[in-house]
Amino acid sequence: MRKFLFGVIIGLALLPIAVYFYFSKGVAPVGTSAPPMPFEKTLARMALHARLEKEMPKTVPIAADEAAYTAGAQVYKENCAVCHGVPGQPQTAIARGMFPDPPKLMEGKGVTDDAPGETYWKVSGGIRMTGMPGFEKTLSTAQMWQVSLLCANADKMPAAVKDILTGVPPTPAAAPVVKK
Question: Which residues face 127 on adjacent strands?
């Protein structure tokens, strides 16, 4: 039993040393084109979800209406589209060079299954080691909620809001025909 216990202690002592050399000798993949480190995705996802459960807002302080979506679309175009894209447009060069790949928030599932509070938490504080910056110092609380509501409802946004995102000019109302 003593030899077994001694082996466990030595093994536990060698583990931090091995991890140190893994990182200090340049073995760890750190480039955006390199494959993920062992357990990187699992550990990062676990930490993110645990933190979200503790800190994300549970209630939304603004109404989820067309005015909020319209304002959110403008915020999204100016701050998010370069990485997360807009409907019907190809991925930007910046997005293609990121690791991990930024999710397309306006196409497919995106984050429409996430609570707006979860998206707000991510917009506000960012996510380490993903390229997702925090906007709490550059956007107002209202702007962060507007873009969070837009993302949460991207699958059911009004056509006028989608037009703002894609840069389609609004269709003018037909002028009445005047007969002479």
Answer: 132
